[in-house]
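Notes from the pairing session

We agreed to fold both candidates in a single pass and log them together. This is the raw record for the first candidate, unedited. Please don't reformat it; downstream parsing expects exactly this layout.

Candidate A
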Amino acid sequence: MRLLGKRQTSTGKHPALRTVLTQPDGQANIGLARVVMPRSIVLDPENSVDPELVCDYDTGQRGECGEGSVIGKARAVSPLLKKPLTGKVHLVQGIRFGPTGNRIRTTPSILVKLRGEVDIDLYGRTTVHAGRLVTVFKNVPDARVKRFALRIKGGSKGILVVTGSRQGNIDICDGRQTANLAFKGHNGKKASYRRTVRTPCAKASKTRKANRAGSRG
C-alpha cells in the first residue's frame, strides 16, 4: 500500500492511494477483506459528501454511476480469464435503514466496477472505528484472483485527506504510517496483517530528521 503525491503530505492535503493485493497458489479464495487506514488519513468531510462527486444510493445499487463519481480505477488478474478485468471506482452515498424502513445517510461506499469476460461489481462499505477509516468488502465472489490493484485519485477533489492532531497540523513524512488488513476466506479461515504504508517522502523525512539532530548538536 502506498500514498502518492509529493505535495500532498500535510494536513488538509489529498494524497492518492495505490494498493496491490497478490495471492499465492494454494490459498482459499478471499470472501471478505477489511482495511483500516492509518490514523492520519480520513475521508474528506467536504468532498465525500459533495453531490457532484457522490453517486446516489439507488443508482449505485444498480451499478449505473456516472463519470462524475469516478474516484479511481482497478484491475484484477485471474488465471481463469484470458485477460484482466478492469474498471472504474465510484463513490456512492451510504445508506442504512431504520426500524421503520426509513433511510439514514452514512459514510459513503466504494463501488468497483470490473469489466471484461465477466462483469463484477464490488462494494466496499466505509465506517469510522476508534478514529480510523475502515473499509470492508463483503461477499467477494468465490473466484481465483492472482493480483488485484486499486488506485484512488488524489488532488483537490480527492476523497482522502491528511488530518491533524490535538497538537495541530501534521505531515505524514514525519512518522511511520501503518494499516491493518484482515481477510476471511471462503473456507472460513481468517488472517490479519499489519503493514507499513509507503509514502512519497521517505528520503525527505530522513533528511529533515538528520538536519534537526545536527542543529541540536
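Candidate B (folded immediately after A)
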Amino acid sequence: MSNMAGKTFIVEHLDPELGEWSALEYKCIARETAATGSSFYLTSVPHELQLPEPLKNVSELNVEHRGIEEIYADKKDRVCLLDPSAKEELSPKDGDNFDIFLFGGILGDDPPRDRTSELRKKGYQGRRLGPVQMTTDTAVRTTRIVVQDRIELENIKYVDHPTIKVDEHESIEMPFRYVLDKDGKPIFPEGMVDLIKKDSEHGIDDLL
C-alpha cells in the first residue's frame, strides 16, 4: 500500500475526440488511482463529447467540463505538470511539494507532438519522467510510484519498446516505455493488447 495517499491525478483532455485507445487508458488510470486512495479527473471534456463505452460505468472516473485553471485557480503552486521538456526529473520529494499532478492527454503520440506546451504556457512547475516516451497510463503509474511509493525514477523496472505478437507471423513493436509488473511483464490497460491486435493492419499511429 502507498504511504503517501490522497493525491489528485488530472489528465487535461486536449483532443476534440476520445478514441478507444484513450478510453482504455483512462479506465485503467481511474481504477489504479482509486485503489491507492487517490483521485483521477479527466478535465476540459467538451459538453458534446460522448464518453466511449469502456468509460460509461467507471465509477472511479471523475469527468469535468472545466479546465485545470478554473478548478484549481487558488492552488497553482501545488500543481505539477508532467512535461517531457522540463529541466528537473520527478523525485519522491515532489510528493511533499505537490498535491495535484497534471498530464496532457496526448502523451502517447508517436512521434511525440509537443502539445503539452498548451499547459506549459499556463505557468505550472514542470517535472519530467525520463528520456523515453510513455503512454498516458504509464506516465500516471510512474508518477504515482515516485510520489506515493517514494521510489526513485531510476529504480522503477521498465521495458522500452516491447513487442506484441499479433500472430505467428506478425509482431508489433510498441514505441513507448512501460512499467513492468511483478512477473516482469509490461503493464498494459485491460483490453489494450486485444485492441492493438485487432487493428494491427492500421498501425499504432491510427490508434492514438
